[in-house]
Design a protein that fits this description.
Elements lengths: L1 H37 L3 H38 L5 H25 L11 H14 L3 H16 L4 H23 L9 H25 L17 H32 L4 H37 L3 H28 L1 H8 L3 H16 L1 H16 L4 H23 L17 H36 L6
Helix pairs in contact: 1-2, 1-6, 1-9, 1-10, 2-3, 2-4, 2-5, 2-8, 2-9, 3-5, 3-8, 4-7, 5-7, 6-7, 8-9, 8-14, 8-15, 9-10, 9-12, 9-13, 10-12, 10-13, 10-15, 11-12, 12-15, 13-15, 14-15
Length: about 475
């Protein structure tokens, strides 16, 4: 059994590590935005923090919708139906173009939120401009993620890594030129980040299209041999899987983003510190997320082959592997929290508050890694509605209500324990810890039941693989 576990863990890691580097590079763009504007001014950092709060909600929701392609294609690969994949991908690109355009429109409309946050006029203007500019990269991002899911599902994850690293390099260089105004270019500050990221998304899409066209590994399933009109039944079937995933992602990221927006009322220092802690947590989160993407692929392929026992085994190994990493990452964040904060900003007050918030970030590593790996394993079964409901309840039934009660000081006076004053950012992070823990426990329980039910159904049908 130990040998089987090691073999499966190695197989998951073989698929996940290029995805991890690609994910780190993608998140590294956001890290570069925050770190580079943080060394320009606290005002520009606050504008990027607020703009990124809205951008991240829409971005991650779109990512969730497009991840449906991963599960769909993985099942076809497992079943050996490679001839179906080009049609699926042509339709997924139509879906991506529509989703990307809708996301662009919604992102621009969402800046109305800033009108209700009592922001300084300069911060309001810079945050709004950041969102308007960066939204132009959304259609490219949606189509890039469609190709991303396709290439991961056929076990080709290295292109994602290479293209994301090139995108990160482009982002850092253009940030340096436009944020600070080097080489005679205008000093755009926060807006410079938006220009770099938006243009970078289009270049990454172009690079992925070029790679799939020229690499021989895609020849068998290459989708762009001819044009094809939208086929709504195919698109609807993908949306039935993808929209609940998008809502699931929305529930989580909007809860974190809502915390950033609510903390804004306490001033520039808390909102900047909150963004730093959240930004680094997102960076660390890429490891269990990458393992989760590998889980979706391998579980989906196993189920496509008709091997429900192997799918359950892969799921359990993946969740255990993610949890083991979370123990290490929690210790790292707790020990080096002051050094991490100093790498983001030179402002002493922001450093101190960010370091204190990272203690909460360290605590929720365990539940965060568990819930994302369990959710991704469930996704490999093409089951998405129950995880969606669990996430909605966990974040909107627990995380945000508890966070608002503690952070804004809304607890009634008769409560036996009530802080003397609002806990601000710390109170919201306590709520997030509760929400993530609830999600982790419920998702693991559901994965157990789902995988056993699938085995029971296969056994009763005489379809248990040998």
């Amino acid at each position: 059994m130990k040998t089987k576990i090691r073999t499966e863990a190695a197989a998951l890691w073989q698929l996940a590590w290029p995805v991890l580097i690609g994910q780190l590079a993608t998140v590294g763009m956001s890290v570069a935005d925050v770190a580079m504007t943080g060394h320009l001014s606290a005002e520009d950092l606050a504008a990027v923090a607020l703009g990124a709060s809205l951008w991240s909600i829409v971005l991650v929701t779109v990512m969730g919708v497009m991840i449906s392609i991963n599960a769909v294609v993985a099942h076809e690969v497992g079943a050996g139906k490679f001839e179906r994949i080009p049609h699926i991908m042509r339709q997924s690109m139509w879906m991506a173009a529509g989703v990307g355009l809708i996301a662009c429109l919604l992102l621009n409309l969402s800046t109305i939120v800033f009108d209700y946050l009592q922001l300084a006029p300069s911060v309001h203007a810079k945050a709004s401009q950041f969102v308007h500019v960066i939204s132009l990269g959304m259609p490219a991002f949606a189509m890039y993620r469609a190709l991303y899911s396709y290439t991961a599902s056929i076990n080709q994850t290295k292109p994602v890594m290479v293209i994301a690293l090139l995108g990160l390099g482009f982002n850092i260089i253009v940030n340096w030129l436009l944020i600070y105004g080097h080489w005679g270019l205008p000093q755009l500050g926060a807006t410079g980040c938006a220009v770099a990221t938006g243009v970078g998304m289009w270049l990454m899409l172009g690079a992925m299209l070029w790679w799939t066209h020229h690499s021989p590994v895609y020849h068998q399933t290459f989708p762009f041999t001819h044009k094809e009109a939208p086929h709504w039944p195919e698109i609807r079937s993908m949306l039935r899987i993808g929209l609940p995933i998008g809502v699931t992602y929305f529930a989580e990221v909007s809860a974190f983003a809502a915390v950033g927006l609510l903390v804004a009322r306490f001033g520039i220092v808390p909102v900047s510190a909150n963004q730093i802690a959240l930004n680094f947590s997102s960076l660390v989160f890429m490891v269990p997320l990458s393992l989760g993407i590998a889980l979706t692929t391998r579980v989906g392929q196993s189920l496509g082959e008709g091997d429900a026992v192997r799918a359950r085994f892969i799921s359990l190994v993946g969740v255990g592997l993610s949890l083991g990493f979370a123990v290490l990452s929690a210790a790292f964040i707790a020990i080096f929290r002051h050094e991490i904060a100093a790498a983001y900003t030179s402002d002493a007050a922001v450093q101190a508050m960010a370091a204190s918030l990272m203690l909460f970030a360290a605590i929720f590593q365990l539940s965060d890694a568990t819930q994302v790996s369990a959710s991704c394993a469930i996704r490999g079964y093409k089951v998405t509605r129950t995880p969606m409901l669990i996430h909605l309840m966990a974040f909107y039934g627990f995380a945000l209500p508890i966070g608002c009660a503690l952070g804004l000081g809304l607890l009634p006076e008769w409560m036996p324990w009530r802080p003397a004053q609002p806990m601000a950012a710390a109170g919201f992070w306590i709520g997030l810890v509760f929400g993530l823990t609830v999600a982790a426990l419920l998702l693991v329980a559901f994965l157990q039941r789902l995988s056993l039910r699938k085995i029971s159904f296969a056994a009763s049908s005489g379809k248990i693989a040998g």
